[in-house]
Design brief:
Elements (H helix, E strand, L loop, with lengths): L5 E5 L3 H13 L5 E5 L5 H15 L3 E4 L5 H10 L6 E4 L3 H8 L6 H14 L22
Parallel strand pairs: 1-2, 1-3, 3-4
Length: 141
C-alpha cells in the first residue's frame, strides 16, 4: 500500500469513481483520497478537505470544476497552507500521470500531471482541429 499523495474532491461520486479507474489501471489508487461534496455546505466541504489534508499530511488537491464548490473550498483553505497546490478540472490522464510520478515531490508531480492532462485531450470528427505533433499527439486521426 502506498502513502496518500493527494486529495481528489468533486461533485457526487466523481472522486471515488475516478480513483477507482486509477486503481484499475495502475494499482495505485491508494495514493489518492476521495472527498465528495454531495450534501455538504461550503463550510462543511472546506472543513472536510482541511481535516483530510492535516490527518493524511498531503498538500495536493485535485478537483473537478474550476468554480465548483470543492474548488472554492480548497481555494479558501489554501490561504493558510503555503505549500498547498490545487489542480482544478482534473481528468483521468492527469491523475494517472500524478500517481506514476515516482521520484518527484507531490507538488512537482502535480505540475507535470497538469500539463499531461491538458495534452491528453483531443477531439475526433469533421470539425476537430488537427492534433498537435509531439508526445501526446501525432497528427490527424
Amino acid at each position: 500500500m502506498s502513502e496518500p499523495r493527494a486529495v481528489v474532491a468533486g461533485h457526487g461520486e466523481y472522486a471515488s469513481g475516478i480513483i477507482s479507474a486509477v486503481q484499475q489501471i495502475t494499482g495505485r489508487g491508494d495514493m489518492l483520497i476521495a472527498v465528495s461534496g454531495a450534501g455538504r455546505s461550503a463550510a462543511e466541504i472546506e472543513a472536510l478537505i482541511r481535516s483530510t489534508l492535516a490527518e493524511r499530511d498531503v498538500r495536493v488537491i485535485f478537483t473537478d470544476l474550476h468554480a465548483g464548490s470543492c474548488s472554492m473550498a480548497a481555494r479558501r483553505l489554501m490561504r493558510g497552507i503555503e505549500d498547498a497546490v490545487l489542480v482544478c478540472g482534473a481528468n483521468l490522464p492527469t491523475l494517472l500521470d500524478f500517481v506514476m510520478a515516482d521520484g518527484l515531490t507531490p507538488q512537482d508531480a502535480a505540475t507535470r500531471a497538469l500539463e499531461r492532462g491538458r495534452g491528453a485531450m483531443m477531439m475526433v470528427g469533421p470539425s476537430a482541429p488537427p492534433a498537435p505533433a509531439g508526445p501526446t499527439g501525432g497528427g490527424t486521426a
